């Protein structure tokens, strides 16, 4: 019966069974009592029956801030250990799948760089590269003979500087005929053989093209100076004064090589504009017929199989139509003493509005020949 009462009722302690002071002020009821240790009775033993399983469950019940020892007991249980292992291997599997997916996407997706960006470009000036016929000048056959050397260097693209038929002024950059090869470098047949050999080795070829001007020997200029049909305005002509062998140009514009960029023509009796040498008159790109001529030239060489072009001197394509003097760098300088290109700010002869539209039109023509797979130009 003692065990049943212990479970249901608090255990009552007799005054004679002693009092334990747990830090509280002693009860005043005990102050006046004298304790006689000799007459104390032996305390009765109380038996309390406690269920071990219930106690264990009470101890292991999770709660906020439980100590590490209790936490470890929970973590070692099967239901937590198995869940933890499953999550661990799922994370490992997900990481492996992510890496594999990344590799697959990189391998299968189109390359970010085009062929003309993926490797160095080997520039060749034909006249000084390789002379195949021992006439003192390099030529196209000489380039073909050295293709194995280019391949050995792991070069993927060859850039040929100007080889158009020309009087060879300014390294040949004033073309006399954009549709022909200068005899110094060979023939059109030599070029076609070179192009085939280059492509057989998996290489690409780009060629120089400066559309800004031609040679004064070009047929267009000869027709323009005679005011023949549509060619009359193929170049930039302006009235200018000539007296006693001296020419007064329309404005103060100077060429890159110095002195006035206007040259008097005895045939037409006008001045033509040239941003480079006087043997290199500028084309009039405000004339749509001139723009079409350039597109036709691009199509001709793309049709031959060329892979691309290096367009140079693009910023000079257009000039301001108002022909005002360009501002001087040194405001105090005598305007009549200006002869050098660096003495002016070239606000009216470079990068004019409409220039980018012309370049975009070149790109559109190139795109017409870029539809074949693997032949992006």
From TrEMBL:
One of its GO terms (biological process) is amino acid transport. The chain crosses the membrane at residues 86-108. Keywords: Glycoprotein, Membrane, Transmembrane, Transmembrane helix. Pfam families: Alpha-amylase. Residues 123-375 form the Glycosyl hydrolase family 13 catalytic domain. It comes from the Eukaryota. This is SLC31 protein. It comes from Todus mexicanus.
